[in-house]
Structure formats: structure tokens, C-alpha cells
Amino acid sequence: MDGGLEQPAFVLHCDVDAFFVQMEQLKDPSLQGKAVAIQQHQDIIAANAAAKAAGVTKHMAPAEARRLLRAVGGRVVHVHCAAGGRVSYQPYREASARLMKLLKTLPWAAVVEKASIDEAYILLAADDPADPLGLGGEGEAAQASAAQLALQRAEEAKAAVQQQLGLTVSLGVAPNRLLAKLASAAAKPDGIRLVADQAAALQLLAQTPARRLPGYGGKAAEAFERHGIQAATDLQRYSQAQMEQLFELKSAAAAQLAQWCRGLDSTPVQEKPPPKTLSVQMSLTPQLLSMHPSQGGAAAVSASGGRAGVLEPLVTGKPDFRLRVRQLMTAMGLDLLERVREDAAEESRWPKTLSASLRAFGAGRDQSFTTRSGAFPSQGLAQKRQPAARQAQQAQQAQQAQQQAQQAQQAQQELGALEEAVVHGLEQLVHQAAATYPPTATVVELRLAATNFASAAAAAAAAPITRFFAAASRPRQGEHAQTQQRQELQAQQAQEQHAPTQQEQAQQERQALREDATACPVLLNTGVPVPQTRKKPQQLPANASFANVPPRVDNYAWLRDDFRNQTAVLSHLQEENAYVEAVLAPSQQLQARLFQEMLGRIPRQETSAPQRRGQYWYYSVHGAGQQYRRICRRRIANPDAPPSEHDVMDAAQPEETLLDQDEMAGAQRSSRPFLTVPLPAWLTSPGGRSYFSMAGPEFSLDEQLMAYAVDLEGSEVYTLVVKNLTSGELLIDGGNTAAFSAEFRASAGDFVFMSDNRTVVFTTLTAATHRPDKVWWFDLDAAAAPVGKRPHKPQLLYHQPDERFHLGVWLSRSGALVYLQGGSDATQYLQYLPATASLSAGTNFTQLAPLIEQQQYIVRDWPLAGAERSSKSGKNGSSEGGGSDAAAASSGRWDVEIVDITVSSGHLAVLERRNGTLVATAYPLPKDGSPLAELPKGQQFSFDAPSYSLEFGDQGPFASPLLRVEYSSLTQPLSVFDINMASGNRVLKQQQEVVGFDSTRYLSRLLWAASTGGEQVPVSVAYRGDAVKLDGSDPLLLEAYGAYGVSSDPAFSGTRLSLLDRGFVYAVAHVRGGGELGRYWWQDGKLLAKNHTFDDVAAAAEFLIKSKYTSADRLALWGRSAGGLTVGATVNRRPELFQAAILDVPFLDVVSTMSDPSLPLTVIEYEEWGNPGADAAAYHNMLSYSPVDNVAPQRYPHLLLTAGLNDPRVAYWEPAKFAAKVRELKNSSDSLVLLKTNMAAGHFADSGLEGRLKETALKQAFLIQTLAPCADQPAEQRAAEAEGGCRGCFATFVAVVTTVALVVLAVVLNPTSPIGRKWRRLRQSAAEGALGARNGR
């Protein structure tokens, strides 16, 4: 070979997927194509993919597995039983031996190494030493030919195994063992994957989760997760030394991992010597363990803890328990002896030592085994057993110790001499091991072993059990006897599990024959009379200047009530609510289960990641029983020390509770002595409130004053309060109408303190359109003066009369400037005011950046050479204005969007979206304060999930070198990192705790769907790997938004797990109109291009159906607010693609709303939707998709619409009109149209934890019952319910644990909603200059 290159050699890895299940399917052809799990004693030891998709997991209780599989027509099959019903692995081991023998007979197999009972490695043989693979070529051509020949060998092996053994295998073909094993895993269940070159190897490693690398589960996998490592290739950025330190690995393990993550493996393929130990093992659950019928019938081994543990009867030697131990030792001991005999036939050896090991809890050594050993009986005692008699019924009927002793003696006499010697020896060893534990200890694991082998005469090989490999149509020898035995076994198991009546069993069997959702009852009451909405036609003419445009007719315009007080309207909404309650009434238990699951994932107490500010650490706490949070702080032990990513809050410092939101909401009266700051009188409500929301708090520079604002109706109109934290005095009590004017009760939620620590600046809303239009200032010293005839009134600082603009104010991070931003969706300007300014009647803001269209300012500041400099960046284009003191950061690329920036004294950090992926970059700033001509080289920080959410968090002191970021993905809970921008070191400060969540079970993907105009639409997908089939039968929830340039970044949701655990697939379509792919992606989905949004949703749905992620009858669509418009328009156009849809507070009456400038948001959003009152093109375009105007006489999916009576963004009458019109025109009588209106909330529904989770449970129950009614239980029981065997403990736990993590509250809503972002931080997002908290639907 030229260049010294060696001829390529290949390794094949052959893996039999679900080996035990395939064996049983060969024996019983009726199991073919079904979901099957294998039971041994009271343990599930194997399940095929279909069973896993139904929720079955290893070590699950068989009764639960039966219940899950019954719903999908599957079965639980007991592991093979020999004569007398004893468990026997003989056919499985024989099949494994035949598999190895077959592989060794392949002419091109040089070496065959058995890796386990169902997998092997094959090294391809070299036919000619001069030409190892018989190719005769050189270089790349030779490598390609060698790869093709290896692929051909794999196909031959697969065909041989299928034809001769009837087993389906997957094969990996690669240059080494590691890549071959990973390739076969990727090819499961029956494919072949070739890794022929470095590119293919890297692709395979990129698709392989790091935790799947052999031997790197457990603690290593947990370490991978902590450091954001998902794919194996992510490990390549670490050196061996770093791996040792970060992942706590030993040197050898780190060295191997450093090689494996690059696809390197020098381990040779070689035949292994026979095992040094033959063993059988059993894990005991903390419940009564009913034995197999052949070992005592109703007798059970107790493994319950507490006062009388398993070991008490073992130690005391009670005769009844002695019998049970003997039955257990008979079952396990004969299985061990069978393995020894098979080994003797193959290896001509016999063990010298017999041992029994126990591991128990409550004994002070929970992680170690206690082992007792003795001599293994001689091979010459006996070579065959006498027929065994079943003693199950006799043991069950025995009542007296004497009778039980007699039965034990009979059982002893019916065993052969060798068998009896093994069983008796194990009994003695188990009792000896048990004697070393206290009586109350609980056995959790039992292991029996044969070791210390010596050469012996070869024994006769066991006769092959050919029926396991016989053709399905061929009669099998002994089938009748085997069938009779199996029927007896199943009858006994049914009796133990309280089998249903014959009528119920017949019904279950009929249901098991049906694979679709109709196999389970639908918990919906469709017989409830549908509310009738009367019609009052009203003509809505278009602009008279529009040619040939007839007026629209609105039959349901009467539902609009601007004052929300008309009896007819309120009665109609209440009737709709009663209808929803009646239809969903049969699902109340399901809703309760879902609610309890969500609560069960929430820790008892959650504290946000503390952040330094001034002299204190600030944070919030959510505790057990709370609906809201407590705002707290602790002093910094050494505030003069420079901030470090390794800083930790000193818990020894006293905690100050500044605000208890539960008390403010009236959820509970606080008796905490630490709550020293009094509440305003109007906030005290012993009876509780239906709604509560808080903006802030903000703190003065000296940290003695605190401002916050509350909304008690959901109208997003806030009442301002300012407190003195030292004296507890209320300096502003906006709810006190006698002392403070109306402006204090019309706050928009933006407020800041000037640097004098006595002046507060805030914005207020217009009464009609809820637009922030004025900026006010108020001198707190004036509040100390007595109230005269007039209440205290603030001074007007700025007024914007133009309805196009919303105002927002915030304080710069340095505390030197107060910024004012005026803007709409596409037009903005910036002004500023020195925070040191003495405000008076003549004070004005100074222009910082002039009015600009189709770009967005993001402004931050830093002091350079004693001057205040600012950094402004435009989205996908250069920013304008600012002069020489401004440093502009602009992407200059159409596919790159600058999402956010933050500035400290030494660094500029920029968050960019590059082709949909979020990346943070930190740039050093000149130390001499000189202006930036261009950005220096920066340091990038990103994460390796296929798609994820990343945003800048609440930043600390201005002089800090730290950048706080918040990261999550569809399968990774929120993680808060502090990154040292100077060193690049990142430290995990907090990760959202989700009780019982195992991230290794969940997978996420980023897919691309082809849409109109040749665009590729990104689609983020998540599912639980062992709960889905991905054959088109899985239910799928598709979310879409697509408006305002808002990116629907895939973020984690604890509540979503209830769907994923039930086999749902969750997908987010990042459609045009959003900002996921840059500014052009938004512009191509707004105004006259708005229809592209709906094209993209339909394209994503079609792609998911075509790719077998779901089917049309299992697909649901969900959208919120403007996303509700996306859903409504898509359902009107393509109803055949969906089985159900949820429209949350949806924007549906687009033409009517955008034609009425008196409504909130209308004028400001002309730039997003168009002005149908003045532009004919906009009118016709809007009319083409407005959901209310495009309802048609066609089949509609099941619809659930929600509304908030006090919603200022999307009026309640829009979903009410749509529901009435769909009912009027749809021709599908079997489809539901449900409208649920929250009569005490606004756009963001319930504010309390329980109310929010109950609403989510209702929506999920609707989805389950309309898409997959069989999925009424998750894939496995809650971990809290399983631990300790306490059947009532889970309900008690749920009743106590009523807390929620900070982010869980946010993700119940749209993860990208403004209020969601606000709740993720201690401070509101407007404090960072994000107008999104005020704009948009």
C-alpha cells in the first residue's frame, strides 16, 4: 500500500434486540407484532420496543405491566418454565450457544467473541496475507471496497441468523469494537450501519449520547449532565486531565474516555475464557413477593421493612417462613444448577464452591453484600432428577406448622440427590448470612453463585429445544403440554392479581385485539346539550374607498362588552364554562392524577440563584404550601471582595423577607416573625384573591427603599407601592385613594429610583388602550407632608401622544442613566436622563438615538474616562445615531440576529442567534476607556443540545467580570451559570430540581420541514425514548407561535413530562413570523407575507406525519395568543391534518380588531399585521386568513378555546365568536367545541400555583382523551409511590408538597411569553429595556 497505510480491517457487532421477547414470539406465534414483556417471579426482566412505548420498564411490577399492555393489546409472558413449572433459562442459553456457533461457522469470521447472551463481536478474516480482504486495490478505493465487502458480510450474517434461527438482529460495521457496538445500537432493531471513515465515525459519535458510551453511566453520566454534555463528541473539548477532575474519573477511565469520545479503541476482538462465576440474582421489592406457583402457590416472601423485616423470621427460624425460604432456594438453586450443568457440557469443568449473598437496608452497610460460602456438591451425586410434583395448592391449604414441615419433607424427597444437596446447602448459607443482620433489616438483593471451577469429565450436551426455532406454521413437539402448563400458570397469576370476572376478562380480550385509541373508553361526556349562541346579524362595512368590497356580517358581535358587566354576555360565558365542566367531568380522576404528578415533581422548597447587588444577596424562595414566592435578601459577608464565579451566599447571615406574595395575595396570613415590613391595608384580604401579579421589586441605590406594583384583576394595570425598608413606612401607597392620585393606580409596571434615593420615576397607562404613554416623577419627601384637600400627585416628565408608541423606562446597570425607549414592533427611539439629575418642571430627556424603522435598539452603558458611553446594536443591521461616543455592534448578516447585550466595566457580552442557534460571546473592553473602533476577538459560549433556550440572566454588580446565563432545552431543566468573561470558566450555580426526572430517558431532535418558497422550517422534537414507537401511532402535540419576531426557543417544562411519560411526542414548529432564523424570518411571516406562517405549520404537520412521528388522527395543535391565530388559521385551511387543537387566549377576529383603533394594541401593531381600515391590500390579505372570517362548512378537529374576561391584549369575545361560528357551520357532529373563560383573570390566566396547574391538567386531559385515551397512566408509577411500598404515601406527599420551582411557573405558559421571562427573574424584564413585556399578544 502506498504511503504506508494499512489495509482497512472491520469488526462486526451483532445484537439481538429484545432477545427474550423474540424467543417467546418464536415459541408462540400469536405474540408476533404485539407489545410483549417478560416476567420472572415478580419482576419484569425484558420488554420489546412496543411494550416500552406503552410504558413498561424493567423491574416494574408485573401487575402494572399487564395493565399497561392490556390497553394496547399486548401481553406479559412468564419466562420459560421447565417440567413442574420451575423457571429455566436453558432454551435462552441454548439459543445463545446456537447463535455463537452459527457465527463461528461463517467462512469469513476470523474471531467470534461472545459479549453477552444476545450479542457478539466478529473480526473479519484475512483470506490472503498479501491482500487481507481480497480487494487488490490501494488507497481510498481500497478502503471503499473493503467497506462495501464488510457491509456485504454483515448482510450475510443477518440473513443467516434470520433464516437458521428465526431471530432479528442489528449489526454495526466499523474499524473497531467501540464504533461497531455504537453502530449496531443506532441500527436497532433490525438495521445495519456502516462506519467506513472518519466522517461517518464523527457523525455516529455526534448522534450517540455520551451516557451511552459503554461503562460511563451512573455517576459519570450525572457529571456529563451537570456540564451540559449530551453527545459523545461534546467530550472532545476536554483533555484527559480535565476529564479526571470534572467527571471524577480514575486515570485509566479518563484515558479510555478521551480515546472513545474520538472513536478510538484498540481493544482486540478475542474469544473470552469461560466465566469464573456462574450466578443467579434476584432483587426483592419492598412488597410481598408472591412465589411462582410451583414454589408454594400463595406463599410469599415478605420484603417489607419496619418493625418486622424479612430477616426476623430468617433469624428466629419460624417454620412457615422456613418453607418459603426453601421454595425460593429451590427455584433459584435449580436454575443455578442448570447453568452449572450446561457449563459442564461446554467447558468440561465443575465448581468447587457454592455461595449465597445478601444485601440489606437498615443494617449500617447498605451498599455491601454479606456472603457465606460452602462446598459445591459433587457432580457424581446424581445426573438426573426425579419428576417434580407441584406443591402450590398443598402449601396454600396448609395451616399448621406440622403440615408445613411434612410438605417440606415431601419436597425434599422429590428432588434428586444433587438437587437436594444444592438446595439444602443454599438454605443453610442464606440463614447464616441473615444471622449477621439485625432482625428489622430489609433484604433487597439475593445472589447465589458457583465459583472456583476445576476440570471434570464432559457431560452429555443438553438436547436442543428445536421448538423455539420451528416455523410458525409447523406443529411443535410437546406443544400441547406446554400450552396446558402455560394456561395453568396464567390462571394462577390471575388469581394472585385478583383476576376480573369472566365477563370483564372477555371484554379485555376483545379490547386487546384492537390497536387504536378506541380500545379504551373515552372519558368525555358528549351527550351534554351544546350551548346555543343566538345570532344578531350586524354589518361591518369596509373602507368606502375600497372598490367592490361588500360588508362583512358578524352574527355574534353582541358578545362584545367593553365594560364586562352585561348580564346576557356573562350568562353566556358561564353557560359555556358549565358545558366544558360537564363534558370533561368523566376525566376528573385523570385530571387529578395529572395535577398530582405535576405537584409531585416539585421540590418542597426552591430558592432562586442568589445575585449580588450592593451590600446584599437577593433571591426568592418558594416553599411547601405556597402559591407564590417570598422575596428575600442576606448581607454579603465581605461586600468589598471582587465578585467571583465561585462565590456562595453565606447562609449564616440572617435572612430578611422583604415581601411574602402569598400574604399579599391573601392566600394565607403570614405568621412569620421575619416579615417586618407592613402591607398596605388594601392588600390584606383574609378571604384570598382570585388573581395576583406583582411587578418588581426595584431598590434604591442605598438599598433602603423598595418599590413594587400589584395587579389584582389580570388587567395588567398596576398599583404602585414604595416602602422604607428600615422604618417600614409606606412612602407611596397607591391603593390609598384619599392620599394618592389615580396615576399611582395606573402604573405600567416600570419604575426606577434616581440616585438621590428619594425620587421615583414610573410610567402610566392610558385608560382606553392600555398604552404606556406618560413618564412621571415623584419626590418621596413630599409623601411625608400631610395630605391636604388634594391627594399627592406626581409630576409629568414625558408624554408620548402618538398611539403607535409604547414607553418603557429602566436604570442602566451602572446606575448612572435612566433610559427611555419609545417603540412599536418595527420603529423605535431612545432617550436618556442622568440618574443624578435634580428633577423639576423643566427637566427633559435627551435624545440618544433618533427614530429608526425596521431595526431595533438595544442599549447598555459603561463609564469610560469619566464619561457615560453607550453601546447600541441593531438587529440584522447597523444601528444609527449616537456619535463617536457610541460603540455599535451589528451582525451585518441576514441570518444572524443580535438578541441581547450586557455591559460591565470590563466586558461587552453579546447574545446572538446564528441560523437558529443561540451563542453568547464576551468581548474585552479597552482598559483606558478609549472608544471602540471595532470589536476585538471575543470568547464564545454555547451549548451542545440540538436546540435549546439561552438568555442573559439577572446580572450582578457593574464591576463584576461575571456573565450570568440561563440555559435549558426540551430535555434539560433550567440551569443557571456564572461565566467568568476573563478566564472563560463557567460554574453551575443552580439547576432546576424536578423530582423523579431522569433526563437519560428523554431525547430531543432538531428536524427540518420543507415549506412554500423552498424554505426549510426548523422543528424541535422531544419524546421519551422508551415510551414511543415512532411508527405513526404515537400522539403528538405540535406548538406554533410565529409573530412579532419572537423566537419560540425550546425550553424545559416539568408539566410537559406528564404527556411525554404517556407516550406523547412534543414538537415546536419554528415558523416564519418568529425570529428563530433572524430578522428575515420575521419579515417573511408578517404583513402581506403572513400566510407563510400557516403554510409552515401545515408543512411541519405533514412532515411529522410522513416521518412516522404521528398520524393525523393522533396530532394536536396548540398555540397561545398570536399563536392562537396561527392555530385557528391553520385549522381552517387544513382541518384534515389534526385530531384536536387548543387555542389559548387566541387572537381570532383579526379584521375587526385591527379595524378598531380604540382597542389596546391595535395602532401599535399596524406594523405587524397592517391597517385594514386604510390599506386595501392589507384588508384583503387579512381577510384571507382571519380565523373568524374563514370558518367553513367542513369537518373540524376537537377544539378547546380559553379566554380571560379581563384580558387587555386579546378580548374574550374573539374566542367566543369563533366557537359559536364553528359550531354553526361545521359538518362534523362528533367533534367538540369547548370554550372556557376565566372570569377573574386576564391574558395570563390563573396566577396561583394550584390554579395554574389545574388548568394545565384540564388541557392535558382533553388532549389525552381526544388523541390517546389509553394513555391515562404514565409509563411508570411515580418514584415516590414505589419507594417504601407505601400505597398512601404518594397522596400524602402531594398534599404536603404544594410548591413549585421558579421556572416551572413560567413554562406552564408559553415559555417565550413576556410574563414568563419576567417570572424567571427577581427583577422584571423591563428593567433591562425589553418592551416585549408590554407589547404583543
From TrEMBL:
UniProt record, GO biological process: DNA repair; proteolysis
Bilayer-crossing regions: 1290-1311
Location of the UmuC domain: 11-217
Pfam short name (any one): Peptidase_S9_N
Annotated stretches, region: Disordered: 473-513, 868-888
Keyword set, alphabetical order: Coiled coil, Hydrolase, Membrane, Protease, Serine protease, Transmembrane, Transmembrane helix
Annotated coiled-coil segments of the chain: 388-421
A GO molecular-function descriptor: serine-type endopeptidase activity
Top-level taxon in the UniProt lineage: Eukaryota
Compositional bias per record (Low complexity), positions renumbered to this chain: 480-510
Task performed by this protein: Serine peptidase whose precise substrate specificity remains unclear. Does not cleave peptides after a arginine or lysine residue. Regulates trans-Golgi network morphology and sorting by regulating the membrane binding of the AP-1 complex. May play a role in the regulation of synaptic vesicle exocytosis.
Family that this chain belongs to: Belongs to the peptidase S9A family.
Name by which UniProt lists this protein: Prolyl endopeptidase-like
